From TrEMBL:
Residue span(s) of domain Alanine dehydrogenase/pyridine nucleotide transhydrogenase NAD(H)-binding: 149-297
Protein origin, superkingdom: Bacteria
Entry annotated with the keyword Oxidoreductase: yes
Organism classification: Bacteria, Pseudomonadati, Planctomycetota, Planctomycetia, Pirellulales
GO biological process: L-alanine catabolic process
Similarity section: Belongs to the AlaDH/PNT family.
Protein name, entry field: Alanine dehydrogenase
Gene: ald
SUPFAM superfamilies referenced in this protein's UniProt entry, alphabetically: Formate/glycerate dehydrogenase catalytic domain-like, NAD(P)-binding Rossmann-fold domains
Length: 365
């Protein structure tokens, strides 16, 4: 199979979808790998390093899309890339379809098979291709929150840890999954005062067992969320209903009870965001003020720490790329149930129920 890796063109996206070891494995198995020139540079990997493993470097994205049967990417294709996608081609990347009707329509029209990293489920029900980036974003959310709570960044002027005689910051984390647990772990190290809210009681019991005493776990309902918003200096949005648009747990009206200059990091923005006032931002222009609350809603947080994130992502994607190349796209998806759960769109039809329901589109099983 010809596998292609284009350069990521999203703003401030420094990840690349394959490491030199991935090229080595594919070439050893008899496949060809095409790389767009410079694709790895944001993560500190040169064309020569890929070439040494047998990759063919081509000058443009059009060369990659024009020849490859399987495109392996990091972020969703952007409008400039849409015309390059061919019917029958397969794309393996983050899509987050529920956040964008335009992207969904474009991929339906393309005739391609779209395998989304974020919905691939393993036999234990976990999301192994989302997990490493959620670990990165969860950990990053606290360092970004700490920065934006500083007064020159428009925050309240609060130090997460406090000092002897002055209370630490209160951090409310909506959703206690991978992002939430990683955010709590880092925030706990800062000695902040933390509450994690979730609707999954088993998860809350588990977090209660493993977290230090400055982390409390609470059941997530309207009243508890509102009570927390009054206390919070920093809110982390970390809920997920896989494949679906994120539920809006906080309305514009709710923000009125928050302290002026408090900060929201809505990590769930890639699925539309869990705060009514959230809208996507970029690393170059990450924040805006609404209702006196500073919002940070960057849709590719791990892109800023591209080198760490590239290694973390490629460690988990490569085995699935190998399966797709070895078995062929359709056979791999029929024979391996986790790959079937990644297929969101196939040849003009929506094949992921939550995406179909989000947009009222027909669902094809
Ligand atoms: N902005 C970015 O760059 C990145 C965003 N993400 C996103 O972060 C979000 C969270 O991801 P993960 O932690 O991996 O998901 P996860 O599935 O591990 O955790 C989500 C949690 O939300 C909980 N939840 C669902 N409904 C809830 C409600 N009403 N109230 C409270 N909790 C609720 C679930 O029970 C679950 O524990 C996803 O949208 C993911 O795509 C992940 C990585 C990077
Ligand atoms: C999960 C995701 O959207 C990202 O890592 O950018």
């Amino acid at each position: 199979m010809i596998v292609g890796v284009p350069r990521e063109i999203k703003r401030d996206e420094y990840r690349v979808a394959m490491l030199p070891v991935g090229v080595d494995e594919l070439v050893r198995a008899g496949h060809q790998v095409l790389f767009e020139a410079g694709a790895g540079l944001g993560s500190g990997i040169t064309d020569a390093e890929y070439q040494e493993q047998g990759a063919r470097i081509v000058p443009t994205a059009a060369d990659v899309f024009g020849q490859a049967e399987l495109i392996v990417k990091v972020k969703e294709p952007l409008p400039q890339e849409w015309p390059l996608i061919r019917p029958g081609q397969a794309l393996f990347t983050y899509f987050h379809f529920a956040a964008s009707r335009e992207l969904t329509d474009a991929m339906l029209a393309s005739g391609a098979t779209c395998l989304a990293y974020e919905t691939l489920r393993d036999p234990q029900g976990r999301l192994p291709l989302l997990t490493p980036m959620s670990e990165v974003a969860g950990r990053m959310s606290i360092q970004e929150g700490a920065k934006y709570l500083e007064k020159p960044q428009m925050g309240r002027g609060i130090l997460l840890a406090g000092v002897p005689g002055v209370a630490p910051a209160h951090i409310t984390i909506l959703g206690g999954g991978i992002v939430g647990a990683n955010a709590a772990k880092i925030a706990a190290g800062f000695q902040a005062d933390i509450a994690i809210l979730d609707v999954n009681m088993d998860r809350l019991r588990y977090l209660d067992d493993i977290m230090p005493p400055n982390v409390n776990v609470l059941y997530s309902d309207r009243h508890t969320i509102r009570a927390q918003l009054k206390l919070a200096d920093l809110v982390i949005g970390a809920v997920l209903i896989p494949g679906a648009r994120a539920p809006k747990l906080v309305t514009r009206q709710d923000l009125k009870v928050m302290k002026p200059g408090s900060v929201i990091i809505d990590v769930a923005i890639d699925q539309g965001g869990c705060i009514e006032t959230s809208r996507p931002t970029t690393h170059s222009d990450p924040t805006y003020m609404d209702e006196d609350v500073l919002h940070y809603c960057v849709t590719n947080m791990p892109g800023a720490v591209g080198r760490t994130s590239t290694f973390a992502l490629c460690n988990v994607t490569l085995p699935w790329v190998m399966q797709l190349a070895e078995r062929g796209i359709d056979d791999a998806c029929q024979e391996l149930p986790p790959l079937a759960t990644a297929v969101n769109i196939r040849r003009g039809q929506v094949t992921y129920r939550a995406v179909a329901e989000t947009f009222g589109l027909p669902f094809a099983n």
